[in-house]
Amino acid sequence: MAGERPPARIVAARLVLRAWQPEDAPLMREAIDASLAHLRPWMPWAVHEPLALEATIALLERFRDDFVAGRDFHYGIFTRDERDEREVLGGTGLHPRIGPDAIEIGYWLRETATRRGYATEAVEALTRVALEDLGLSRVEIRCDPRNSASAAVPRRLGYRHVTTLEANALTPAGEPRDTMVWERTAAEGASPPR
């Protein structure tokens, strides 16, 4: 990423994506605690939930420090309405863990925010930031093939399914898991085909 950093706040049509801050801990706690059964099958970190509020504050301090240092970019997904940034709909991020000039987008939603297009809207905004603002050559999304809702997001946005890695990861329960790899390149552009 050659010194470039994504913005700490991104405004989309219905959402605000904002770098997590320690004071967001109660809102994050509420979103996760209300959605544990929904998150546990797919998100390895959810197996260790619920965390105490103090542990969540420490996690968000680490996210903030990583963002400022340019190591990793975690965002809260917040409502954009009269209650701006008072409800956490989920989390997302730009994760520079897949090699040079590329980035991975991850995301999760609280259960009551699913099936409304929020993940698609958040990922579309981050795709634009990665390919247009940061000038990266490639963006990836990785997901469990059994998580059809998660796989629908890159499909809807015109990402190409490039491979499925067999038994390359573990489910949160510790069983072997395949991983679908979706990709969008700068040559394809940030906007999904219409």
From TrEMBL:
Transmembrane recorded as keyword: no
Pfam family, one: Acetyltransf_3
InterPro entries per UniProt: Acyl_CoA_acyltransferase, GNAT_dom, Ribosomal_N-acetyltransferase
Name assigned to this protein: Acetyltransferase
PANTHER family: ACETYLTRANSFERASE (PTHR43441:SF3), RIBOSOMAL-PROTEIN-SERINE ACETYLTRANSFERASE (PTHR43441)
Organismal lineage: Bacteria, Pseudomonadati, Myxococcota, Polyangia, Polyangiales
Organism per entry: Sorangium cellulosum (Polyangium cellulosum)
One Gene Ontology cellular component: cytoplasm
Record-annotated N-acetyltransferase domain positions: 15-188
A GO MF label: protein N-terminal-serine acetyltransferase activity
SUPFAM superfamilies: Acyl-CoA N-acyltransferases (Nat)
Superkingdom: Bacteria
UniProtKB keywords: Transferase
Keyword Transferase: yes
